[in-house]
Amino acid sequence: MQKVVVCGESTATQVVVAKLLQSRLALTILVDAPTPEKVGLAALSALAAVSENSFQKATPKQLADADILVLTDFAEGSLADIRQANLAGMRRLFKAAMAAGFAGKLLVATHESELCTYFAQRFSGLKPEMVLGVGTMGLTKCFEHALARAFDVPTGAVTAYVIGTQTDYTLLWSRAYIGATAVMSLLQDVPDAAGIMHQVQEACAAFAQAADAESFSGLVERLVAAVAGSALIAPVAVRYDNGERPVVYSRPVQIDRRGASAIANVSGSEAERQSLTAALSALGEQITAIEAGEN
Predict the structure, then answer these.
(1) Domains of the chain
(2) What is the rounded (10 degree) CA torsion for 135, 240, 102, 82?
(3) Could you tell me the CA-to-CA distances from 166 to 156, 275, 278, 280 in Å, in that order?
(4) Among 13-27, 243-257, 269-283, whose mean pLDDT is lowest?
(5) 10 Å Cβ neighbour count for 122?
(6) Backbone angles phi, psi at 74, to 5 degrees
(7) What are phi and psi of 77, to 5 degrees?
(8) d(Cα 278, Cα 18) in Å, to the nearest integer?
(9) For the segment 75-118, what is each residue's pLDDT rounded down to a tens digit?
């Protein structure tokens, strides 16, 4: 049975805990929230009373033997407010968790998950492969579903990926397949190919704009299952060493009991690689600005 501690003080915290309480996975769920009323602790306790998985408020000592820490947002409001609260919340959390001896895996299910994955790994000192952000996993599902609808095929027949970051992402059209056939090849025989591509891009843009705690919660459950042994290949945010400074972005990796393991690099076309480079440059500038403010 996996011991999962959900950390945060937002609607997302409550939604993720509720999802895991009702999961068919065998889990012990704890919540780490300095202000319990912000996450509806009483309502979650009531839900736990009619759920198979157990639930309680976490103590610092219980962080020591947790298998997984799940990070959710530490505030509501503007993106700037959420970012500030997330950085402060992570500092507090990891000071306690690492002092207690936490050595498990870390799942980052926040806004700007690539940014938070970078700082979660830096603050915790955990190995990069043990710190995973939800990244573009949801966008990838949206991309695959939109392609399935456009070509009227089962979703399981589609393999496609979105890389980059949650807010600055690239659809890998050049590496999208239906069965064994490249989507770009199929589009050559479709009269309204441009219309289909626009329709799919709009669906992904709408998801990126509207994705919230409800969509994150399902991704968290699947990632918890993956690190518990039900392996998965998906694009999640992971830190990679790249020259003088590390980068964090979402690309397909294998997720299992070992954490994240690299598979064959899915690089895309020249235009797609340039789009990724621009996204990483923007994220790097944002990280540099935050670190400069710390100093």
Answers:
(1) 2-103 (3.40.50.720), 136-295 (3.90.110.10)
(2) -40
(3) 23, 14, 14, 12
(4) 243-257
(5) 17
(6) -100, 5
(7) 115, -150
(8) 37
(9) 999 999 999 999 999 999 999 999 999 999 999 999 999 999 99
